[in-house]
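Work Package 3 (structural annotation) set out to generate three-dimensional models for the target panel prioritized at the project kickoff. During this period the team completed the workflow that converts sequence records into discrete structure tokens, so that structures can be stored uniformly alongside our sequence database. As a representative example, we reproduce one entry of 235 residues exactly as it appears in the project archive.
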Amino acid sequence: MLKKLLPALIGVTLASGAFADEAAVKKNFETKFGAKADSVSKAGYLGLYEIYADGQILYSDEKGTAFILGPLIDAKTMKNVTQERMNKLTAIKWSDLPLDRAVKQVRGDGKRVLATFEDPNCGYCKRLAKDLQKLDNVTIYTFLYPILSQDSVDKSKAIWCSADRAKAWNDWMIDGKAPTAKGDCDTTAVTRNQEYGRKLNINGTPTLFFADGERIPGAVPLAKIEEKLAQTAGK
């Protein structure tokens, strides 16, 4: 219900009594939309309040006269404040990741860790795979997360059934050599990854998770990955 309503909220004015604290903002939102607000906090800009609900962020003024959906950009730094907050709000516990269902690659001492959710037919994932080849002293856990097509499912199962999963993955993603395994082994890991990804609201690939649990969607530049790995080393 909420997802259908949110796109229509941009610039829409809604009648409401005045309120000035998070609890009142939360109550007002839930009353109007019949949906639970997971969190409400001051946005730090223009007196707005940030409302996190149904996996999305929207903003309300303190009087509840309008709700705004869309990215909030800091004019001084040009940072996407909304995206940075989403990364924090959607963070997970690294220990909760079912790493036994991921394709594991260890480079160097393997002390730094990175987890990715990827579709084998995702162009951005292929670009990321090439970039990750340049990383050292890292352990990469790749969760096969086919969401684009049935062919993605078939390729994921074939990779999972390969004798050397990491080699099969890299052969396809980097060199374009399709996996030759039949995909007739126990592939419940792939199915469970699909279910788990939906639970985490992963709607696009690649999606990356770091040791501190922070989620970063999209083909992140290698420099940003190195920066995050340095920040989270030892966590």
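The domain at 94-232 is CATH 3.40.30.10 (Glutaredoxin).
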